[in-house]
Write a structure and sequence with these properties.
six-stranded parallel beta sheet; 20 strands; homodimer; alpha/beta; about 575 residues; five-stranded parallel beta sheet; globular
Chain lengths: ~575, ~575
Amino acid sequence: MYIESIESPKDLKKLSTQELSALACEIREAIIKKVSACGGHLGSNLGVVELTIALHYVFDAPADKFVFDVSHQTYCHKILTGRKDAFLYEDQYKTVTGFSNPLESEYDLFTIGHTSTSVSLACGLAKARDLTGGKENVLAIIGDSSLDGGEAFEALNYAAELNSGLIVVINDNEMSIPENHGSLGRHLTELRESHGKCSDNFFRSIGFEYHLVENGNDIPSLITELSKTKGTDHPVAVHVCTQKGKGYAFAEENKEKWHWARPFNRDTGEFLSSVPKENYGSIISEHLLDLISKDPKLTVIAASTPICIGFDSEKRKRAGKQYIDVGIAEQNAVTMAAAIAKGGCKPVFATNSTFIQRAYDQIEQEMCIDQCPATMIVTHASVYGHFNDTHTGVYDIPLLGNIPGLTYLAPSNKEEYISMLDWSVSQNKVPVAIRVPWTGVTHADYDIPADYSKIAYKTVYKGKKVCFIALGGFFELGRRAADLFAEKTGIQPTLIDPMFISGVDEAALDGLTTDHEIVITLEDGILDGGFGSKIAGYYSDKSMKVLRFGFSGKIPRVYVPTDLMQKNQLTEKQIVERVLEIQ
Amino acid sequence: MYIESIESPKDLKKLSTQELSALACEIREAIIKKVSACGGHLGSNLGVVELTIALHYVFDAPADKFVFDVSHQTYCHKILTGRKDAFLYEDQYKTVTGFSNPLESEYDLFTIGHTSTSVSLACGLAKARDLTGGKENVLAIIGDSSLDGGEAFEALNYAAELNSGLIVVINDNEMSIPENHGSLGRHLTELRESHGKCSDNFFRSIGFEYHLVENGNDIPSLITELSKTKGTDHPVAVHVCTQKGKGYAFAEENKEKWHWARPFNRDTGEFLSSVPKENYGSIISEHLLDLISKDPKLTVIAASTPICIGFDSEKRKRAGKQYIDVGIAEQNAVTMAAAIAKGGCKPVFATNSTFIQRAYDQIEQEMCIDQCPATMIVTHASVYGHFNDTHTGVYDIPLLGNIPGLTYLAPSNKEEYISMLDWSVSQNKVPVAIRVPWTGVTHADYDIPADYSKIAYKTVYKGKKVCFIALGGFFELGRRAADLFAEKTGIQPTLIDPMFISGVDEAALDGLTTDHEIVITLEDGILDGGFGSKIAGYYSDKSMKVLRFGFSGKIPRVYVPTDLMQKNQLTEKQIVERVLEIQ
């Protein structure tokens, strides 16, 4: 086995191209084995094995600097840079994260998880190199679909201003997470099909020298072409055509399914765990398709993550022209949604909490200033949404909940979610965002309102002295804490499902002042600038005490949600203990 | 005069091209006259007079839909669409705003003030048209430098997916606010110089049909070329070369100075008012140039608004390669800054509060997760920063102040500002943002710390019962309110300059609990999720009362800052009255 002899990229350079190809097979095998056991990004990693080997063969990292876009495709890079054991030995599987990580290795320069930043980062490294008189090569390795994100273009457009060397490797596997969208993808196809000779070369138009590697899974071709770019004094684009999922037949066949895989049986290609039958993805996708069938003006918009609302390829087909995927381009998605609403239609844009961050400006400006009645569905907005610091789902309450003019709703169960969506698409007055609870599907055992045009909290049960205001996905936690409190003290506390993140129900809060002393707020998000801070702010000049439960800003690189709950005093036992302390 | 007969674009269509040219002269005269009296965007408006006339001549607004990017260049459009009196008669000057405004006219579809959104908005309108079976033309009119913003590319890249008609008019005046940056600008020059025939056409590469109007101030050429695009069923780009400032010699000569003009004497080209000699722009630019001269690693980064830190063209030249302008591309600016810091240099990125909104994700991810020690200077962060709802400077505290890992500082005077900047560029541990006070230059009459690595509030005077914690630009307001309170009650309150927006000084706040009953917070920003909400949150389970002063989210379309202060109970008299009420 060659793989066992690779302690650093230096060891690669001793191997012949034939030996490098054998090494690629071994690496591919290690990746498939580990991902089948642990889950992870499979297709993208299998596609770039040869490219990563060739990069480390031709260039001299860590002196030369590699920035991998999104960095979910760095498994082979990790194997080649001293971390092979994390892929070879089961007991070491958890010693590396799934993204580039400076805490692991000097070969990883940045902690990266969002798309389209690599060219910017490389421009910055190149500028620092030039200011300090360095001579190293700086490379961004970016997927074709990550080029859709506006920031990538901002950096490509800037690169020529550097008057200096920069290498951008485009890993063109003809896929985003779902199918590719956008005319740049079509242009890449033209370039492939014309052997790089079609007219109107995008990269040349913005000042890049252009190279094509037609078989990007062939190590000798890669080495030949990459070698030509070494030491460049100007911006160079290397267009490398790779096969996503290469080497695992199921992943070659169904690229979307195998972009990120749960643990699976490698012989049958079956996932070992199944998604709960009742989940918000399938619930809301069926409901949206029903709305689409009844209203030709309803349009669902995705930004490369349609699966966050359960829009798999079959459902996307059913939605037809009432479904839009703008690519990884949240800014365009939000602004288009605002204009579609202005044009008299009913846009529903859905994305993950961590990705909607890209569109704050567009939500504040295009959506809210003119009060365009669009709907945004915010998924994975929870400590249970993802499990690492680049993909937290706990920042969106301060981000969106303080935008003037946005109605930000937090359903705590299926019935509220559906009711809020129905209301949102039926009204034409205000922009609405809905924060999907991500702690499992629950059902209302109380009446659900049909109208959300005025802030009105729902009192689920009325008690005294202590009131639990438990938001969205933490409503059931609040209920359990309230029950435990009642059990421990014999006092029945009040329990409120507030439903509204933006603004406060002043009448409800005033009402509590007569027979309550403490209000407990619970939210599945960070405390700073969050929901509880609005309640605390409202009561700040009154005698009501407010205890806020949620997360501190200290999110570990990788975490287990239940551990983070514990650490932030968020079990019902911990909550009740603190309430009893303060009383 | 033709201008007086234009009630709507229909009236244009009766005129000959010669008459249209005469009309253009009249419109130009009206614009120069009004802007010389009131101030406003001059250069861009003078450049697009003929283009706007031709657009309204060829197309049929409001059935056909125009979206003007940034919309600061819509003066001629307003004149042609029923609002000429606002440019002809002094007593009506204030009846229109400086940007497109749906409250004024059905010809204005959106309230727009930020760049690079027009193509997205047009894509959304086109999609709504196609869903509802409409046939109208949809046009985005976008400046060359606005194409640098990533969102514009996201939308251009999406346009071909529409499979439908869309017209993008590029108003190429070869300028941003300062000089243009980026390779797309160079490509536009190539296109101009080659009469549109150079190889590797950017627009064609991403699926657009391409048209060139070499003299974009010639009405017949414009009409001929625009007419060819009417009724298109696919995306078309019309590259129109115009002269910024055309028709006013001073503005033709110095395009940057006349991008936005204060009231001026049209004969001499002199502004009627002068900027105070001591202003934060000149203070900080000289200080930064001094730092640059001493440290070759210090780099100033702008995103097309270098003037926000006083970097005029002469100072930009002095900074040499230690100055970067990335164009209107805040995302790239922040990410590059993070990487420049990682590369061992000292980046200082400066922009307006309202524009930093575009880069939330990059600040949270690239800057803060890896704790890249970059500095960001946030200017115009105040109700005095701008005067309309698309350019508020009052949202950045909730936006940036709640990002875990960001040290957000609020100097209240010149000495603190300089000291914080010096500290920030000398340390290599944390990313720092500095919120420049925008209520006039003041000076410290107390000791200023040199180290800001730990949160420590400055007690300026120690009193009892009541404590004023007055942030940044509102520190002097807090001091005046504290003095008035002492005068009215005979009780000397405590006055604190908190200096830190992010986090709270727990020791200082705990210290107040022994002999204070009320804490007053003041901030030049909205209250929701803001500075005061952190103080209120900290005291929420204690008996201290907190009164928060700042702005509600209700920002009028156009406002006078002192009026908005009054409306939000922010004069010292109003503040003290409310404190006395609660006591």
